[in-house]
Amino acid sequence: ARALNTESFGQRIVILDSTVSTQQDAMRLAEEGAPEGTVVLAEEQTAGRGRLGRKWFSPRGKGVWMSIVLRPTQPLGFTPQLTLLTGVAVCRAIRRLTGVEAGIKWPNDLLIHGRKVSGILLESATEDQRVRYCIAGIGIDVNLNTDDYPEELTQLGTSLKIEAEREIDRTELIAAVLEEMEQLCRLYAEQGFQPIAMLWEALSVTINRSVRAHTGQGIAVEGTAVGLDPSGALVVETDQGERIQVISGDIQL
Ligand code: BTN
After folding, report:
1. 166 among the known binding-site residues?
2. Which segments of 99-169 does DSSP mark as H helices, in order?
3. Is the pTM for the entire model greater than 0.90?
4. Which atom of ligand 1 lies nearest, measured to the CA of 52?
5. 148 and 225, same structural domain?
6. Residue 240 among known ligand-binding residues
7. How many domains does the chain contain in total?
8. What ipTM does this complex have?
């Protein structure tokens, strides 16, 4: 084991054996006043949640299933930036610890060789256009073997163990994620979104690729992903040269 090199992130950690979803547990703690950087970890989730109402497969002992309490001071419209920041943090931690070159698919799926190794779910509690707190949910497939995946996921998912061809120490990975989160949150507080956007673009597998985007409003957009705008929206340029911001939803590469 190694020391956790942070001031606030992970200084309080609740470790659960089995839970429905660490998102719910972290939300309850945040409601009770838990400070920024409070973490909930579980060995297994019985109903892990993914983005867009999907389920998140969270088998016992094989992954990092973690939720972090964030207390942003920015107004409501800035939460997409926190989603991107969290993706950068997890991507950097994975690269640092395993040497495997994970890339980010907008907004924050982490892919290795085209398969998803990690997903991020950022949920916010708001009141009068104000953010009361956010919960950054991070799922990382760490030590799953190929035959641990249910059939519908075998083509889509991969694990760090499969890609790095060795067991990965979950405790070290968690420490690395928390260190990256704290550093990036500090950078963000001091210098704003611009440096985060640059890091995100450098790790992204989406930029300069042709994408089909479905916005949250169900509108289909086709074109080339050209970058992030200052709010954290993905900018897609159509064949007609029109630039469209994609704020939510999913893309196909
Ligand atoms: C996605 O890619 O759709 C996001 C997946 C987020 C999964 C994590 S695992 C820890 C936390 N608890 C949950 O129920 N979901 C998030």
Report:
1. no
2. 160-164
3. yes
4. 3
5. no
6. no
7. 2
8. 0.99
